[in-house]
TrEMBL record, chains A, B:
One of its GO terms (cellular component) is cytoplasm. It is an enzyme of class 2 (transferase). It comes from Chelatococcus reniformis. One of its GO terms (molecular function) is homoserine O-acetyltransferase activity. Residues 36-345 form the AB hydrolase-1 domain. Keywords: Acyltransferase, Amino-acid biosynthesis, Cytoplasm, Methionine biosynthesis, Transferase. This is Homoserine O-acetyltransferase. Pathway: Amino-acid biosynthesis; L-methionine biosynthesis via de novo pathway; O-acetyl-L-homoserine from L-homoserine: step 1/1. Substrate binds at residues 211, 341. It is found in: Cytoplasm. The keyword Amino-acid biosynthesis applies. Homodimer.
Length: 367, 367
């Protein structure tokens, strides 16, 4: 969906972005009352391809466990929309897009993006699609931040909200991990100050290192132990070298290499920065509850016991704030050893929780 | 201390290293019975400068909290020795040393080092110093691995042992973090396959990224929150840029920059690898207790509640193994929010525990 100079995106950086476009996918059918729309918000390295074959990787949609026919977010029943976030690299305007002022990609001239900017862009898309009200907004991690921002910025447009494995604020430790990833990208001489597009170079090594480090934070120690332990890669004894002796090393290297094939390094900088900047309470006088005052949205907050990137404490803070303004909120902490990535995996309790919540909300909504 | 071809270091990689040398510091006075020696084993990026001004950084010794006159490891009473590990870069032979076969630095031709190699080298040093028996071996993290290896390899030479914030085995998660660090170094084009010495280049950017990532694992989330939180660096509002907006970013960048001034990138590869390879039970039929069968060494095992790099579970495994062979062991888990680095910091309970243990052991030893 393209927006011209008449519909600029007003960004927190103080820039009116125009022209700009937003790439999205839909699944299912919008009902006549236009009341069955569910917006799915993707995480840091996700995209709009929730439940279809990915055009770049050829892999299945990233949330087919949760979204699809007969799944908790049932595409036979709901009209599901997912848009690539602003600053991303799968079709929505971002640092790899052409800057009309120069005729070359923006690079670091692209304005720094915030979670609020992502939500503003999605709201403009929904306006254009003629969807005034969302039945539900759902997302995990950075997607969960967008869910919370939606509920705060546009409470009247959100009937139900499911923030999963997320927080209202990015912690110092999480900022620290992101900064290491950014420095890994920027340390790659092929990054060229963000202007790698000029001669076709790509900071693939730096971006791969960033992804490897981040990937560890998406898993739990228990998962790494269970999946890999100290097992060696295709051999009986260590090689006494710096080859990938251990399976976990080989796995991480593969994660890094696969990632750079599908993701833009500058987008990685921008989207990690957006998460770092996220501090919902700061916009409401430092009191998180104020973000939800008077909200009639129904919330279902989900966390996972072994998620050390977005620990349950962050979800509890959301629940406390919602309780403080007498909002409707249910909260489930799911027992799992799969870490932060649990929200993307086969977690029956997640499906039962979200499916049950959506069924009840649909009844309340008269769907 | 230099060793010639007559005293090669027999390394686990199958190499007889010669000539080689080991750099060390001593503090205090060896008594007439030669029975009051304490060996301090340093951690990954430590060195022999335990309790004196560091010759490169000009900073105070890295363990002056624990070691010195009147401290728990009392240099008025004990003869304290600390040697740079083999593979290190502060005087002991390592990858930056000249390879006599080529006349240039070893680089990656240096044999991969193990914790057992480090201990063998220390044992040869003690032989040369005429110290048959150690009153105590003490160390944290990789230093603690050496303590355990000492107790297993040379039980008759170790009267008391204090492994702190360590484990008998390096976990999959820890291998994963190390591998990211190594890949960060190797991704730096100035690393040049380990031959950066040829033209005076240094993979400083890659090594700095490695250090930044590792540094996060040495702290706890609570420490990062307490020390930095989301406070901004010398400004009132975020810059909407990729500058070090947050204090935690600035702090990490500084940690990376300071580290590359004092540490050799190849040594970093070798020493992380040594930790990855550490699996004490594997040398004893897979049963950790067998490593300590018949041991008369007195152990004091210490862990810290907020240490997620070497969690208390790893210390408990050591204690269980020692109990299984009826060894003398005391175990203290110290409540602190300072994370893995707690062993280097002002932790009164650590001083009380180690000081009390050493005082009792000294009485038992007749010191």
């Amino acid at each position: 969906m393209a927006f011209g100079a008449d519909r600029p995106l007003a960004m927190d950086a103080g820039v009116l972005l125009a022209p700009w476009q937003i790439a999205y996918q839909t699944y299912g059918t919008l009902n006549a009352a236009r009341s069955n729309a569910i917006l799915v918000c993707h995480a840091l390295t996700g995209d709009q391809h929730v439940a279809n074959i990915h055009p770049v990787t050829g892999k299945r949609g990233w949330w087919e466990t949760l979204v699809g026919p007969g799944r908790p977010v049932d595409t036979d029943r709901f009209f599901v929309i997912c848009a690539n976030v602003v600053g991303g690299c799968l079709g929505t305007t971002g640092p790899a897009s052409l800057n009309p002022a120069t005729g070359e990609p923006y690079g670091l001239d692209f304005p720094v993006v915030t979670v609020r900017d992502m939500v503003r862009a999605q709201a403009l898309l929904l306006d254009r699609l003629g969807i005034d009200n969302l039945f539900c907004v759902v997302g995990g991690s950075m997607g969960g931040m967008q869910v919370l921002q939606w509920a705060a910025s546009f409470p009247e447009r959100v009937f139900a909200a499911i923030p999963i494995a997320t927080a209202c604020i990015h912690s110092a430790q999480n900022i620290a991990f992101h900064e290491v990833g950014r420095q890994a990208v920027m340390a790659d001489p092929d990054w060229r100050g963000g202007r790698y597009f000029v001669d076709g170079a790509k900071p693939s090594k730096g971006l791969a290192v960033a992804r490897m480090g981040a990937h560890i934070t998406y898993l739990s120690e228990a998962t790494l132990h269970r999946k890999f332990g100290r097992r060696l890669q295709d051999r009986a004894a260590p090689t006494f070298s710096f080859d990938a002796d251990f399976q976990v090393e080989s796995y991480l290297r593969y994660q890094g290499e696969a990632f750079v094939e599908r993701f833009d390094a500058n987008s990685y900088l921008y989207l990690t920065r957006a998460m770092d900047y996220f501090d919902l309470a700061a916009d409401y006088g430092g009191v998180l509850a104020n973000a939800f005052t008077g909200s009639r949205t129904r919330f279902c907050v989900v966390s996972f016991t072994s998620d050390w990137l977005f620990p349950t404490a962050g979800s509890r803070a959301i629940v406390h704030a919602l309780n403080a303004v007498a909002a409707s909120v249910s909260f489930v902490e799911i027992e799992t050893d799969k870490g932060h990535d649990a929200f993307l995996l086969d977690e029956p309790e997640l499906f039962a929780t979200t499916g049950g919540f959506l069924a009840a909300a649909a009844r309340a909504r008269g769907l």
